[in-house]
Amino acid sequence: MKIRKFWLFIYLLSLLNNNSLQQSCVNTWEADLANPNLNLCPVLTASGEECSFPFTFNKIEYRSCQINNGNTDKIPQCYTSSRVWSNCILPTNAVITRVTTRKSGSTSTNTVSLNGGTLIWIIGRRFAMNTFSFAPTNTTSNEVYLTTDTKSYNCEIHTDKVTTTQVTCYAPAVPAGSYLVKVKVNGELIPIYQYENINNAYVIASDSNTPKINSIVPMSGVPGTLLTINGDFKTACYTRDEDGCSDDSGARISRIYFGGQICNLIDPNTNTLYQALSQYSLKCKLEGSEINVFNSSILISEQYGRSLTSRDAYLISPDEKFYNFRTYP
């Protein structure tokens, strides 16, 4: 009886150890593949076989599925035990090709404003088709994040331009630095090995790329006051119809806001600018009739985004609110 109990104990212990080993494996799409000591979980393929990790291709050893093995659709594939390529069965087979901050731009055009508002274009394959919904879910859409080793910032999806081969989002305000763009498709993060070239998936936030507002004259007035704004807007274009502004991917002044009110560059009576526009100075007329204090913001298209306002352009209201312009009756 004691011998039987002993062997039963050994059997149960072996089952426990096997189960523990199975549970301790890490999925390739969640693993730090630079760590050679990880126990990787098996990956099934469309052929019914498992990936034969590690495998060697073009004299390089791989521990994950690959997209740069010559298949034109860039579907993640691996060598199987029978030494043939087969499509990997993964949580997502979406691929990131490159990231840019200008329509049809190259990977070298990848700067964003420190104050956010820059439209980021992510080019790839097999993204989800984001559609408008009052209750969007992460299982039927794309999510984009600007990431460092320690931080992650949500990038608001611009659904109008999303297709299965591109995702667009508005960059948030971030500190100066370099950010790797990461994407979730239907709730699943695209792993690093499904980037065609990881070096082409970064954006850089910098002060030199950020539009500036240095002063506003006057800083108070009745609703409809004509205002002069000085700074560095990165462009002197506001429409494609002007000379030198016809480039479809060139930057232009999209909107000028004071709080929720628009400041208009065009005199509606003459259909001309209130003042000849330059990169460093403009005149606009505040629309609306609200009596309040306001903060200004200029939105520049393409790689520039939302402006930052100089500290010298702020006043403090009696109730201790910072503002750039105040209206009175």
TrEMBL record:
- Decide whether keyword Repeat is in the record: yes
Q: Which Pfam families match?
A: TIG
Q: Which InterPro entries match?
A: Fibrocystin, FN_type2_dom, FN_type2_sf, Ig-like_fold, Ig_E-set, IPT_dom, Kringle-like
User: Residue limits of the Fibronectin type-II domain?
Assistant: 44-88
Q: Which domain of life is it from?
A: Eukaryota
Is Transmembrane helix one of the keywords?
A: no
Give the keywords, sorted.
Disulfide bond, Repeat, Signal
May I ask which residue range the UniProt record assigns to the signal sequence? 1-22
What is the protein's name according to its record?
Answer: Fibronectin type-II domain-containing protein
Record organism = Brachionus calyciflorus
